[in-house]
Amino acid sequence: MNWQHPFVDVFKQFGVFEIAHTQSKGQVSVVQDNSIGRKIIRLLGAISANNMVQIPDPCQGIKQLGLTGRYIYIELIPIKGRYFTMHFDLQIKDRDPLIKLTVSNMYDVHKVQQSQLLIPYPKNAPNKWTILILDVEYFLGNFGLLPTSLYKSFKGIHSLKSFQICSSMNIRGIYTSDNLYDWETMPKQMLFKLAKGQKWSEEYQIAYWPNLDVQPHVFKQPLVEVTSDILDNLQKIQENKEKFKQETQKSFKQNQIQHNTQQIEELVKKRPGDQNIAQSKSVDAQDHPLQPYPIQQLEKIIGFTVNSCPDIKWGRQTETQKQIIYAAGQLLVQSNIQDGKQKFFMGHSKAISCLDVSKDGEWLVSGQSGKNAIIRIWKNNCDCLSAFATPYSNLNYISFSQDRKMLVTVGQDEHNREIIIVWGLEKIESNRKPILFAKQTSSCNVIAIKFSPVDNNRILSCGHENIRFWRIKDEHLPGASVVLNHHARNTTFTNFDFEFNYEDQNVSNIYFGSKNGYLFQVAYQSQKLMQVYKVHNDAVTAVCLSAGFCITGSLDQFLRVWPLDFNEFYIEAKHEGIITSLDISIDGLQVACGTSTGGLGILDISSHHYKTVIRSHTNVINQIQIHPFSKLLITLSEDCTIRLWDIEKSDQVYEFTFPQDDKCVCLSSSPIGMYFAAGFKSGVHRIFDIEQTSILFEGKYHDLEIKCIQYSPNGQQLLIGDAKSIYKIYDVNRDYQPIKTIQHSIQSQNVYGQFSKDSAILSLIENSANIELWDTSSLQQILKIQTRFNLKIFKWAENNVELLCGTTDGRIIIYGIERINETITAYYLREQTFMHKQSLNDFVVSPNMKYLFSVGAEQYLKVWDYEFQIKGPGSCQVFIGHSSQINSIDCADNGSTIITAGGDEGIFIWKFLGYTGKNERLIKMEQEQLVQQCTKIDMQPDQFDEQEQQDEQNEKLDDYYDLQENNENIHPNKEAHLHTFQQSQLVEMFSLVRQLPQKEEQDEDQGLANKNVNTPFKPDHFKPSRLQQEFKPITFEFERQILNRKRSRSQLKKQQNRQQNSSTQLPFRQYIVPQLKGQSQQPTLQCKYMIGYNTKTHDNIIWCQSYGWYAYTSQNYVIFEKLQQEREQLILSFNAIVSVIYLDKTEKHLIVGLAQKVQDAAPIYVYEIQNNASQLNFKQIAQLNFHTQGVHQILFTEDEKYLVSVGNGKECTVVIWDFTAKKLITSSYTLDRINDIKISKYTFSKERIFEFATVGRDQIYLWAFTKDHKLEYYDVFLPKNINTNELEEITTFDYVVYEGNKNKQTSQSLSLSQRVSFDNSQQSQTVKTEEILLEEGSKDQLSFPQLQQELTQESMKQQQLQSQQNKSQTIQLLILGLKTGDIVILKYGEFKPIYRKQITNAEITYLKVSQAAGKIILGSTENSFFVMDIKSNLNLQSFLDSGFAFQRIQLPGMVSSYVLDPFYTQGIFGLSNGNIYLISFTTKQYFLLNATNSDQSEIEIKQCKLVEDNILVTTFNQGIVKLWRMDTAELLVEYQWEKEIVQFFYDAQIKQIVFIQEFGQIKTINIDRLDVYDQYYHIGKGGPDKIISCVFGIFDSIPGKFVLDESGQLFFLEHLYKNQEYIIRYIKALELPNVIQLVEQCEKRVIFAIEQDTGVVSTLQVDYNSTRQYPFAFTLFDQINFLANPHGNLDNEQSQKDTQTLYSSVDAQTQIIPAQGFDNVYFAILNTLQYLYGRNYNKKQIILLVNLNDFPLYLSLDNNLKVYIVMQNGSLEVVQPNESVNQNQLHITQLNSQIDHIICQKRKSNFVITSKTIMNFYQYI
C-alpha cells in the first residue's frame, strides 16, 4: 500500500473527470474554474438520485477503490441556497455490512441509521471554496459503528470502497491520506490557486471535521515514517490548532446571546441579594474533559443467556482449567471460578447462539443467528482469528474437530432447510477465511452434531427419530442411520457424548439422551444399538462422559452421576430449573452445569460439593438500583423476579417473585431501612422487607398501572404515579397512608417524579411537556416550568440546584433551581441533543458532577462531559457490549463503578477510569437564562379595597399576560423561555386570576368565601377531663392546599365581561322557576319533573318543616318539592354528583357538597334561602374550596358558628370552617376513610371551642378544636373479635350523656365494670325486637304537629346552661354501630367497651340519639329501621339495665338517607329502591311522597313507550315494570316478575299491555284496573329464538300481533283461552334477514323493517285474507338505502355503490317514525349522518332533507308535527318540517349521561327523556 503514501489523488488515479464527462447521470459537466485555476465537476441538478457521479464506474471493471487513508480531503463549494450530498462506502475488514458516511447540508445533527452515519455540513458556512477533512477513524469509533476493540487497533481495518457525489455543488477533487495537513503544510497539488497579494486563509477555508481541538490525540499513533518534514508539519498544525481555538472562543464570547430583561424589570423588582448558588468553573483548554481514552472498561458481567445459548465449556489448558466459557448476549465470557475474574470476547453484533472450545484450548468458536449468520474464531487471548458469514438464518450447533483443523456447523437457511457444513481451518491464521470442505442438505432434523474424537472424516449427529454417522467425501457428506427399530418412533434425541478409552485412544460407545428419559448406548465401530437405560422420568437434556462416569441432566431438574453399568446413580442433585448443558473439566473431577433459570454451577464429584458460580435473570431487566441503605444492587426483571446482589462478590443475596398476571413494573429502595417499594400493573403497591423476605405493607389506592415509584432521599415520603397521571404522596411514618393526591386534567405520555437530594422539592411531569415543582413539607406546588418537549425522566444533581430532564427525543435539558428565601426561580443552563438515536432510556450523573452516563435503545452506553462543552463529534465516548437495548443505569462506589442492564444478557459492571475526586463547580445564575414559569403560591393576598386599586391591578395583570405572550420575541433562539417573579408580586397578580366574577354587592361575601387563611399554631395536648388512663395525643398542623385555577388571558377577559353583564353567577347550568305573566312567550324548553334519586350517597334528604318542603339529590341535581300541594319541582343543577345537602337549624341556609372534583376542587356551596308562600328562591353567598376528591359529610356546631366537613375515602380529610366569615380555619386528615362524624354538645376544657369524633373501620378519632384554632386528636382502636380474631368495622355512632353526682360517678363506673363486663370471648346476645307493621296511607291524610321552634330552642338553651353547670358530674358515652349488627358502648375518658349487644344480623348503617326526644334510631342493610324509647332512662344505670329493647319497622328497601322531626315522631326516608316515603311512628303509617328509579348499576331502563298518550310504560332488567302518569310524573303501579321482559306492545283493542318475557311467555296489564290480568304459556314447537322487536296493529279491522326474533324470523302471535288454560301460539309468517326493528303504521296497513348497520329501511304492506292458511300476507312496497346517496347529490349508480361502501364501514343505526300529518311519509335519522330525512314511501322518494347541528341518536314526533331529535352531544333539536324555511331550535337537556330514549306526548307538547335510571319530563312552551 506504499502507493497510497503520502496521499492519493482519487480523481486522477481513477479518471473521475472522464467518468463525469461520459458516464455521469443528470446535469453533470466538467468545466474550468478560473478563480482557482483548476478543472472542476459541476453538478447543477437539485435531485440527488438524478444528478450524480459514481466512483468507481461499473464500466471500468473495478469493484472497489481500496483506499486506506485515515483522512478524506474534499475540495468543494456548494451552490448557495441548495442542498448537496456525498456518500462514502467503507469496507471493514472481516465485517459485514458496509458502513456508509453521508455528508450533506440537509442535516442538523449527526445521526446513525443502522450502518449509515449522517454528517452535517454547516448551513451557515461561508460560501467559498472549502477543503473538508473527514477523520474516518473518529467517525467509526465514536458513533458505535465499530466495537471499541477494533477502534483501538484501527490500522488497516478499513478501506474506501466507493463514493458518490450528488447534486448542487462544484467539486475540484478528493484525496485520501494518513497525514493530517493544514493550509501551510498541504502539498501543492491539493492547494487552490492564489493571486498576488492574496492570502490563502482569507480566500479559502479548511474545515476539520471534527474540529482539531476535540481530538488532541490525532498524531498519537502515526501510520507513516516520521521525518523532519512531518515533524515540522505537526508543530505548525499544533500552533494552528491553538490559534483556531482562541479565535473560536473569542467569536463565541462576542456572539453570545444577551438576554433582554427590560420588560420584565418593569413589572418585577430585582431579586433580593446577589448570593450565587453555583458558579461554573471553566475547564483547562488543554485538558480534554473526557480523559483517558477509553474512560471506562467492562469489568464483570452477571449473566448467562441460557435462552439463546445454553452451551458452557471448560477451559482446556492447564492455566485455564479453572475457567468456564459461556455466552452473555453478544459477548463470549471466560470466567475464573476461583477469583471471579472475567475476560470478554467482543465482536458479535447479535446474541451468540452456540459455541465450542478446541480440545487443546487454544481456539474458541462462537456463532450468532440471523440472516447470513456470522461465525467468529478466537484465540485464547481474545483476538479474533476470523469472522465469516454463513448461509444460515438459524445457527444451531457448532463443533471443532479433535485437532481443530475442521469445524462442523448445522442450522437452517432462509428456506428452513437443514444444512450441515464442514469448514477447513488449516490456513485460517494466514488467510483469515475458512475453506468449505463439504456441504450437505439433511433430510432429517439435526439437534446436535460432533466430530469423532479419533477420526476427522467421521461425524455423528442426532435429532428427531434419527441417529446418524456421516463421512466427509468429495465435498459431500453421505450418511448412514443407526437402526433403532421401534425405539425411533416419536423419539427425539437431544444430545450425546463419546466414551473415550484413554489407554488405546479409541472410542467404544456413544451415549444419546432422549426426550422420553432414556439413554441409548450405540457401539461406535458396529454402529448398532446396544442398550437402552431409563435414567430420568423426563427428557434428558444434557449428556457428558468421563473415565468411568456418565453425567446426565434432565427436564425434571435432576443432575445424576452414573457408573457405566447404570445400575444406580452415584450422585443426584436437584436444581431450581431444567438442566440445559453439562461439561466435565479436563481432570474429570468437576462438572459445570447450566440451568434454565440462568444459573451456572460446579459439582465436585469427589467431594459431592456443589457451588453456584452465577445466578442471572432469564428475561429482560427493566430496572436496576443501588440500595442506599444496604449498598446491594436491586434488579427488576420480566422473569417475574426482584433480586438483590452483592456487587463485589457477584452473588445473588435475596430473591422475590411475583405472579405473571400482576407484573411488577417499577421499584424504589428505602434509604433508611432494609426494605423497598414496588409498584404493580394492577395498581397495587407493596413494601417488601428484605431481611425477612416478606411483604411489610400492601396498598391499593390506584386503579391503573403504577408507572413510577420513588422514595424521598430522607426516607420520609413515598411518591407513586399511575397511568392516569395521578400522583399520590404517602407518609412512610404513618403506615404509608396517602397525604396528598395530585391529579392532572390531561394524561401525560410519561409519568415520572423525582425528589431533590435534600428531599425539599418534588419534580413531576405534567401534561407531558411541563415540569411541576412541589414543596414536600407544605405539599403545595411552588413552580411550573413549561417546555416544548415530551419529558420522560428526571434526575437531580448532587448540589440540589441542577435538575436534569430527559426527553423522548433523546435530549437532556438542565435547569438551575434557585431558592432564595420565599422566592424560587428556574434558569435554563444547557442541553445536549441527539444523545441516543432511538430513545433515551436512563441516565445518571457522577457524584462529583463531572460526568454523565446515558443509555438508550440502540445498545450503547455513552459517557458525556457533564458540562456539555463539546458539541457534535467527540462529545462522548461510546461503549458496546449489550445485545439489546439498555433500560437502566446506576453508579456505585462513589462513581468508580457503573452498572447497566437491559435485555437478558445480564448485569454489566464497568470500571470507571476517569476522575472521581471532588470537583468544585459554581454557577452564576444571573448569567443564565430565566425560564418561563407559572407559580402556585402558598398563601393568600391580604384584603384590599378593589375600588381604589382595580385599575392598577388590571394594568399589572395585562403586563403579566403580555410578557407570557411575547416570550418568543424576547428569546427567539432558545427553546425554553423566561419568566420569574417576586413571590409577593405573583401573589398580587394571581389573586386576580383566582377571583370569580360576581355581582358587585356579592364581592365582599364572595371574597370571604375564597379567602382561606390558615394561621400557624403550636402543638398542644388534648386532655379530656378525668381520664382513667394517661395518653399522649398527637397534634398535627396542616396548612390548607391552595388550588390553582388556570386561566388564559382570553378566558379572563371573557369572565370580566360576563361580570359586567350578569347579576349573579351560579355554579349550576339551569335555574328553573315558574314563568310569570306578561313575559314573552318564546319557545322554551322547561324541565317539569325529574325522576331519580341518589341511593349511593347518604345525607341527601333535607326537610324544611316550617314551610312544608323537602329536597333530595339525583345525580348532579338537588330537587325541591312541596309536601301538601299540587306537584311542582324546583331543580338546582351542578357540575358534578351531589354527595350531601344540609339545612341549618334556622332553615335559612342550604349547604351543598359535591362528590367529585370540578376543575381543581370538590367545592361546598352555601345558599341563602328565601322562603315565601308562593315561591322558593336561592342565592349563592359563598363557595368553600378545600376538598380535592369529594365531600362526604357536613355538620354544624350547636351554635352554628362553625362548619365541619369531611372528605370522602380518597382523601380522608377533616376541615373546620368559620361559617360566619365563610373561610377555612384549619384541617387535618385520618389514616383511613371516615364512615361517620358527630359533634359533642360538651367540651371538657375551657381552652376548647367544641369537640367531635369520627369513626372509620376499627378506629375512633376524638377531636378537639381549640380557641387558638388548632385541631388535636386522640385515636382509639376497637379490640378484635376474639371469636373470629378479625377486626370489626365501625359504621356509625352517636353520643349519649348522663349526669350524676361526681363522687358517685367513680363508684358507679367501678360497679358497672364489675357488673357489666365486656368480654369478647362471649358472643353478644341478640336483643328481642317488637315488630311494627306500617299501613300505607294517602297523602290526604298527612298531618304535621306544630313545631314550637322557639320554645324548643329556648328549652335547649336552658338545658345547655344546666349542662355547663353540671359538667363536672357528666358521664358521656359513645354508642358504636358495627358492620356485624352489634352495638358497642364506650365510656368517654376510659375509652374501653363496657357494653355490647347484637341488634340485627346485618350491617348497621345509621345511628341517631336524641335525648331531648328520648329516642334512639338505628338503620340496617336488611331493610329494617329500629326505634328505642329512652325517656325513662334517667341515668346511666337505668340506661344499661334497659336491655335495649327496640321496635323494628320493616321497610320496602334499605334506608339510604333520612331526616326526622325534632320530636322523632315522623320522618322522610329515602330507600334503596329509589322511592321516598314519609313514615309516622305515632300513627304507624307510611306515605309514598315520590317514586323514582334506583341508581343502582344493575338496574337500568331497557324500554320506554307511551300508551293512550298519558301512560308511560318503562321496563327494567330484573323483570321490573313501572307505569307513570305523563302529566304529573307520578308512579301508577310497579311490578317485579321473576323473568326478564324482552319486548312489549299495547293491544288497543282490549286495552292491555302485552309483555313478552324470556322463553316466549306473556303477561298482560289492563290499563283500566292496572293489575296483572292473565298469564299465558307458550305451547307448540318452532317458536321464536330471542325476540328483538314486536308490533301491534289493526289491519282491515283485524288485530295483528307480530314478533321478530334475532334470526330474522317474523311470527304472528296468537293468545287464547282454551281448555281452561291461557296459551299462546306462534305462526311463522316471513323471513326478514338482518332486520333489527319493526315500526307499524296501522292506518296505512304498513310495517317498516329497519336493517342493522346498513341504513336500509323496507316498507311492507300488510294484507289480510281469512281464506288463506296464514291470513296475513306481506308485500314489499318500498325500500331505500340511506347510505347509498346520503347527501342526495349522486345520480351515478357506481357513485352510490362507492358511497355505500364508504359508510358501511361504520355501524349505522337507523331510526324512523311515521308522520301522522303527512300522507305516506316517515321521518328517519342515522347516527352517522347529520340529516333528518323525510321519505314518501308511496312515491318512493325523499321529500325532506334537513341539516342537523350534530349526529342524531333518537327522534320522536308530536301532533303539531314537531320532530324532537336528541343529539350525541346531549342537546335537543326541534324541527318543524311543515315550515317553508326550516329554522331548527337547539336546546340543552339536563342529563349528563348518555340519553337512551325520547317519547313525545301527542296531544301536548310534553315529552320525556330517559338515561339509564333517570327520567326527565319536559314541556315545550
Automatic annotation (TrEMBL):
Q: Where is the EML-like first beta-propeller domain?
A: 341-568
Q: Does the keyword Heme apply?
A: no
**Any idea which UniProt keywords this protein has?**
Repeat, WD repeat
> Which positions does the entry assign to WD repeats?
614-655, 833-867, 879-911
Q: Which residues form the WDR90/POC16 second beta-propeller domain?
A: 627-910
Q: Residue limits of the CFA20 domain?
A: 2-192
One Pfam annotation reads Beta-prop_WDR90_POC16_2nd
Q: What is the superkingdom listed in this entry's lineage?
A: Eukaryota
Q: Name one GO cellular component term.
A: cilium
Keyword Repeat annotated: yes
Annotated region described as Disordered, given as residue ranges? 997-1023
**Protein name in the entry:** CFA20 domain-containing protein
Name the source organism. Answer: Paramecium sonneborni
The opening ranks of the lineage are:
Eukaryota, Sar, Alveolata, Ciliophora, Intramacronucleata
